[in-house]
Write a structure and sequence with these properties.
This protein is an alpha+beta fold. Helices cover 44% and strands 20% of the residues. It folds into two domains: 3-96, no CATH class; 115-355, BirA Bifunctional Protein, domain 2, CATH 3.30.930. The chain starts with a helix and ends with a helix. The structure holds phenylalanine (PHE).
Length: 360
């Protein structure tokens, strides 16, 4: 076989091999490697071209043309394969990124307010709706606001009954020990003082929710619990107003007409004072374990604000009068939701919280 025929033969088999390889390339990077292998500077085609030098000069243009045809054929095949692979790659990507929109979604766990917070908000809202303004006071108090101004002088036995947490290292400006407030009643004092400074004289009607502290712990007592204080001062406020507000509040909160009963009691800061019972919400006042057979459940303390308390903030008790009451939030939530043990509120067992968490 002549030299030129042999070269043409080499070029033909190179082209056949290359076309097969291009067609089988899996992806664009494999194709790029093949391009280098066949058409690169040190590639197979260049290798064959080395043989051209051995040909007599007259034959060189012939083989040159043949080489160009081979090169053109390979380049064209490469581009074709490239285009095919690009399309295939896109299709693969689309397939891989496919979303199955028929799968059901993952549920987001939604938290809820703690049942005590729900109760606090609910109770406060009922009074706010009746026109009482919301106020708050500090949880760290001095003896003046927690006791003295509320007509509980230092030797008063009521002080001992409050199981107060004193803060050893904290003292007021006048050197008195500070304490964790044992009730929300000091907010009466602070709010009345602030109100008078701004407006000169009553009327004012206030609802004051917040945390209170007593050194006490059992099934019905927790060292921290929540109270809502409600009070109103104006001319001619009477016990009838107190009873009307209580009746409306308790029936709204328990979502049914509850009977209420005021029992004479004693609080240093109210005169007269009354404990308030509601007809038992569990047995329709027939008598059960919860109401201890009486048909009544005690829910809060109340009374007409003592003239000494009004005097301590500079209100004339001959001209103005007021009612006040303070209720325990945990207790009311327990009664409404049938929760048997106060401690459930503070253990934060999620099974309990989930059951209580769903508000309307
Ligand atoms: N402060 C009282 C308590 O914590 C409740 C109360 C408030 C009673 C207002 C009468 C008037 O026990």
């Amino acid at each position: 076989m002549s030299e030129i025929e042999s070269l043409k033969g080499q070029l033909d088999s190179l082209q056949t091999a290359a076309l097969v390889a291009f067609a089988q390339a899996e992806d664009l990077s494999a194709l790029q490697q093949l391009r280098v292998h066949y058409l690169g500077k040190k590639g197979a085609l260049t290798e064959v071209l080395k043989g051209v030098g051995k040909l007599p000069p007259a034959e060189r243009p012939v083989i040159g043309q043949y080489v160009n045809q081979t090169k053109a054929a390979l380049t064209q095949a490469l581009e074709l394969s490239e285009a095919e692979l690009a399309v295939k790659g896109k299709a693969l990507r689309i397939e891989a990124e496919r979303l199955d929109i028929t799968l059901s979604g993952r549920k987001q766990a939604v938290g809820a307010l703690h049942p005590v917070q729900q109760g606090l908000d609910e109770i406060t809202a009922i009074f706010a709706q009746m026109g009482f303004a919301v106020a708050e006071g500090p949880e760290i108090e001095d003896e003046f606001h927690n006791f003295d101004a509320l007509n509980i002088p230092p030797e008063h036995p009521a002080r001992a009954m409050h199981d107060t947490f004193f803060l050893k290292d904290l003292h007021s400006d006048s050197g008195e020990p500070m304490l964790l407030r044992t009730h929300t009643s000091p907010v009466q004092i602070r709010t009345m003082k602030r109100f008078l400074a701004e407006h000169g004289e009553p009327p004012l009607a206030v609802v004051a929710p917040g945390r209170v502290y007593r050194c006490d712990y059992d099934v019905t007592h927790s060292p921290m619990f929540h109270q809502v204080e409600v009070f109103k001062v104006d001319r001619d406020v009477s016990m009838a107003h107190l009873k009307g507000v209580l009746q409306h509040f308790l029936s709204t909160y328990f979502e049914k007409e509850v009977g209420i009963r005021l029992r004479p009691h004693y609080f240093p800061f109210t005169e007269p004072s009354a404990e308030v019972d509601i007809s038992c919400v569990f047995c329709a006042a027939k008598g059960c374990r919860i109401c201890k057979g009486s048909g009544w459940i005690e829910v809060l303390g109340s009374g007409m604000i003592h003239p000494n308390v009004l005097r301590s903030v500079g209100i004339d008790g001959d001209e103005f009068s007021g009612f006040a009451f303070g209720l325990g939030v945990e207790r009311l939530v327990m009664l409404k939701k049938g929760i048997p043990d106060l401690r459930l509120f503070f253990e934060n067992d999620v099974r309990f919280l989930r059951r209580m968490g769903v508000s309307k």
